[in-house]
Design a protein that fits this description.
The complex is a heterodimer of chains A (344) and B (446). Chain A has a single domain, classed as Formate dehydrogenase/DMSO reductase fold, CATH 1.20.1630. In chain A, 77% of the residues lie in helices and 1% in strands. Chain A contains 13 helices and two strands. Chain B has a two-stranded antiparallel sheet. Chain B has a two-stranded antiparallel ribbon with strand order 3-8. Chain B starts with a helix and ends with a helix. Helix content of chain B is 71%, strand content 6%. The longest helix of chain B is centred in the middle third of the chain and has 35 residues. Chain B is built from 14 helices and ten strands. Classes of the chains: A mainly alpha (344), B mainly alpha (446). Chains A and B meet through helix 3, helix 4, helix 5 and helix 13 of A and helix 2, helix 3, strand 2 and helix 13 of B.
């Protein structure tokens, strides 16, 4: 593997982390949006707030990381993607702003109406960002992003069947991840009713996600043959692994076994993302820009790898500390939702 | 982008300096077993949480804007300056993690452990500020890449990171962050004191930040002075625009305010020869004028630039005076001056410091125009070719206004609740439970 490929791997790690962790955050927002209004939906929403509070910002930083690695390591790809796809990316950014604001001000809005509004904003934002990120991926996979400053069509590049299907797939995947994570969180909070609540939703969203993935494969076959061939060629083991992980989660949820469900769900998403990476290789933008052609000068690539090494040494232990403290409830904010029955 | 940056710079400054204030209060609280100081630390940690959250959001939008608005700039030079942002990413990441631990850890961690989880927040804030400002420095003093025209094929990262503008731009910005935060926070408590809330929390809330800011201000004056001299040497046109120097000559008059015209400064107070003296310690020093370059290589809005520069320097000078006032009071009575006028001045200093910060930002950004990378790439060549991007930009702009308003309302609501003692209802974003942390209150310093 040469240096440019190594940086592409770093980029993919950033994207994977963002997709898994922030994806779960966004998915939780979707469940918050879908929860019943008023008192009935309050307990699931409380659980979501309680589980996400301490970790969502750190999760979010992965996006900045990925964006920076992209523009430093592969500036021409960055230029092409961000200028041609400015509409979906602006809308994704809008989602991020709304979501951050919804989160930051949710608890501060004292009146019930203000809280409900903030909650809806958060939920709406949670649809925007994954959906439009998905359309961006669809546009890249479909080869609709030519190199240059806004060289592609600003509308049809992302407003096409493939992009829309992948956008929907991203939303469903986020919701699925979130539901699986929330089952564990509900257990940690000691709320068996919420465990069942989110287990049901995990099952439903797993089926929807699987169906959308099948539609997505078909759309790739029609509109992005290069990536489809890659997924069914070199990337096939990863696609199969993803499917197996997904089935494993279903089995675990069905048997009420919590251990391992989160890891398997994250594994299912991770292996698809890497399958996509393998399928695209050696292209950054399929069939127009190769990784080696789009890469920055050697010294820059070396610096990125050094910075990434430092990040692994410095950030990962801190992140592990935060997650450990959060999981052991050493850091928490809002009161956790207790067993059902105490309120209502 | 100008607007979002102007907004972000305030939040980022708070993010850099407010954790330091919070830790000082926390330290005093633990050392002296001072409940009021701990209460302050806790309140400030909540403010840090909200501003950091909003700052994180605006920061993300900024990273998007590099592509949405300036794809050609990032496309060509991303590989040169990008590493700095990658470094910044690490600092930001660590900051986010430790802020979360500190804020959520009030209740459960032991007091000194908790204090030490806050220390990385202040340090990473400094590191992050270094990386980001170093990028801006590089845009003013680009080096470390070749060839200078066309596609960059080789980069020397160390030369990029430690470019010649770093030694003055970075300390200038970090000091500005401490200065602005210090005066702003002190100003807020001064208003409280003026309204008759003379409890220990308000007195400490004024004293801690004001002391920090008063120490930072004279240093800032010296750093700013050397920055101006460096700019006169490295970016003479920017300096000429700041000082309204039309023709290259010696014995240049220093004008305070006044209107810049092509035939010299109209109005304003002139000090003959002083501008030359400031640049080279002698009235005989030659100062490069705007006429040394063609008209379209000069910064626009000359008068505004000049006013922004003078306002920044003027405010800084006045703030030094305020610092002396505080020092005098402390020297005589071991307390800040107890007069209404001192409190009024402090309250005003908060607003003035924000104005000075924005003025400084205008000077460095507008002063660099028409270049995005000084003498290498014009701003007009960096902009996106996508039409309609301004519509989405307008939407983001409107959102920022809402975000700013929501932030201020939130902070006001928080302070109102603290004041009314309606502690039970305090439920800020990821804030700790209200009231002094029980473990700290009962165990005291470990």
């Amino acid at each position: 593997m040469n240096k440019a490929d190594a940086v592409a791997v770093v980029l993919w790690i950033g994207l994977t982390m963002y997709a898994v962790f922030a994806g779960a955050d966004f998915g939780a927002g979707v469940w918050s949006l879908l929860s019943a209004s008023g008192d009935r939906g309050r307990r699931p929403r409380e659980l979501i707030d309680w589980a996400l509070g301490p970790v969502w910002e750190a999760n979010h930083v992965w996006l900045i990381f990925a964006v920076v690695v992209l523009w430093t390591g592969f500036p021409s790809a960055f230029e092409a993607v961000f200028s041609t796809l400015f509409i979906p990316l602006s809308l994704a950014a809008l989602g991020i702003v709304l979501r951050g604001a919804g989160f930051a001000f949710q608890h501060t809005a004292r009146r019930a109406r203000g809280q409900a509004l903030a909650g809806r904003l958060f939920g709406l934002a949670s649809l925007l960002t994954p959906f439009f990120m998905g359309t961006v991926v669809g546009a890249v996979a479909g080869g609709r992003v030519p190199v240059g400053n806004a060289a592609g069509d600003s509308v049809t590049s992302w407003l096409n069947p493939l992009s829309l299907v992948i956008g929907a797939l991203f939303v469903a995947t986020s919701a699925y991840l979130a539901a699986v994570f929330l089952v564990s969180d509900a257990h940690r909070a000691g709320a068996p009713d919420l465990e069942r609540y989110f287990a049901t939703r995990a099952l439903v969203s797993a089926v929807v996600t699987g169906a959308l993935a099948a539609v997505g494969l078909f759309a790739l076959y029609r509109h992005a043959r290069f990536v489809f061939d890659g997924l069914t060629g070199d990337g096939l083991p990863l696609v199969i692994l993803s499917g197996l992980c997904g089935i494993g989660v279903l089995v675990l949820l069905h048997r009420r076994a919590r251990r391992g469900a989160r890891v398997l769900a994250a594994g299912a998403v991770t292996s698809v993302i890497w399958g996509w990476g393998v399928a695209q290789h050696p292209y950054l933008l399929p069939q127009t820009l190769k990784i080696s052609a789009g890469a920055a000068p050697s010294a820059t690539l070396t610096s990125i790898l050094i910075v990434f090494g430092v990040a692994v040494v410095a950030v990962l232990p801190s992140l592990a500390l935060l997650f450990t403290l959060a999981q052991r409830s050493f850091v928490e904010e809002t009161s956790r939702p207790g067993p059902a029955g105490r309120e209502a | 982008m100008a607007f979002t940056l102007g907004f972000h710079i305030i939040l980022a400054s708070l993010g850099v300096a407010l954790p330091a204030m919070m830790l000082i209060a926390n330290y005093i609280g633990l050392r002296r077993d001072d409940a009021a100081a701990l209460e302050l630390a806790q309140r400030w940690s909540k403010a840090v949480a909200v501003t950091f959250a909003v700052g994180a959001v605006t920061g993300t939008v900024l990273s998007f804007e590099f592509g949405l608005l300036w794809p050609a700039f990032t496309g060509r030079f991303g590989e040169v300056f990008g590493v700095l942002f990658a470094i910044e990413g690490i600092f930001f990441f660590l900051e986010a993690i430790f802020i979360a631990i500190y804020i959520f850890g009030w209740k459960r961690l032991s007091p000194w452990t908790h204090f030490w989880t806050g220390v990385p927040v202040a340090i990473t804030g400094l590191g992050g500020a270094f990386s980001v400002v170093a990028v801006n420095s590089w845009m003013n003093q680009p080096q470390g890449y070749s060839p200078t025209s066309g596609k960059v094929t080789s980069v020397e990262p160390l030369k990029v990171i430690f470019n010649p503008a770093v030694p003055y731009e970075v300390p200038h910005m970090i000091l500005a962050a401490y200065l602005m935060t210090g005066f702003l926070v002190a100003g807020i408590y001064a208003v409280g004191l003026l309204r008759g809330r003379r409890d220990r929390i308000h007195r400490l809330g004024l004293l801690i930040p004001l002391t920090v800011a008063s120490i930072a201000t004279p240093i800032q004056f010296a750093v700013g002075d050397s920055a101006a001299r460096a700019i006169a040497k490295h970016q003479p046109i920017k300096f000429a625009a700041m000082e309204c120097v039309e023709q290259t000559h010696s014995d240049v008059t220093e004008y305070i305010y006044g209107r810049c015209t092509s035939s010299g400064v109209k109005g304003g107070i002139g000090i003959p020869g002083f501008d030359s003296f400031l640049v080279g310690w002698s009235t005989g020093t030659q100062v490069t004028g705007l006429d040394s370059v063609p008209a379209d290589d000069r910064p626009p809005a000359n008068t505004m630039l000049h006013w922004a520069f003078d306002t920044m320097v003027g405010i800084c000078t006045a703030l030094i005076g305020l610092g002396f006032w505080l020092g005098l009071g402390w020297w005589r009575k071991r307390d800040f001056p107890q007069t209404k006028w001192f409190l009024r001045a402090t309250a005003l200093s908060g607003v003035a410091a924000v104005v000075a910060l924005e003025c400084g930002w205008i000077v460095t950004e507008v002063g660099r125009q028409p270049w995005i990378v000084y003498k290498v790439m014009r701003t007009s060549d960096a902009v996106t070719h996508a039409s309609g991007v301004w519509v989405t930009f307008g939407v983001i702009l409107a959102l920022y206004l809402l975000l700013g308003a929501a932030l201020i309302v939130t902070l006001l609501a928080m302070s109102k609740r603290w004041r009314s003692g309606d502690e039970e209802d305090v439920d800020v974003p990821y804030g700790p439970e209200p009231g002094p942390p029980p473990d700290v209150a009962t165990e005291g310093p470990a």
